[in-house]
Predict the structure.
Amino acid sequence: MSDWVAVDPSEFTTWEKKRLNGVMVNVSVSPYDIPEAVRAFRAPNSNWFHIQLKYSIPEALTLEKISSDMEVVYGINSRRVQEIRIDLTHFPHQEQAALQKLQHAVWTAIDYVANQSRRSVTQSRLGDSFSVTKDILTSRRNLFEEATES
């Protein structure tokens, strides 16, 4: 199991001007929606690859099975993605192809939670937090490499 890799929130906090109720304000993603750390590992004696995100405030979680080879764990209230699990059984053996397929699977899991959230939550901040999650995982692409190691 890999060690947690710290995330610097200032790297992913961007401010933008928005007009809310006729008033110009500066807004950004809540610091609570930026994970403190991430890690990825292949489960021992298993084909399942796990990507975990750690947040400062623990919460009740729910598990959704997206397909037979993908699961996502996220916060019931916050909708923050906490873990993505991917079965690598049918992944290509070429490293580059496997990495591309893995990244696509991770984006699919994040988009799944984002779409679920849009159905049940009308807070505009959520779209930004899903983008930040993708940005963090893109910047830590080396986490995916363990999935392609035999």
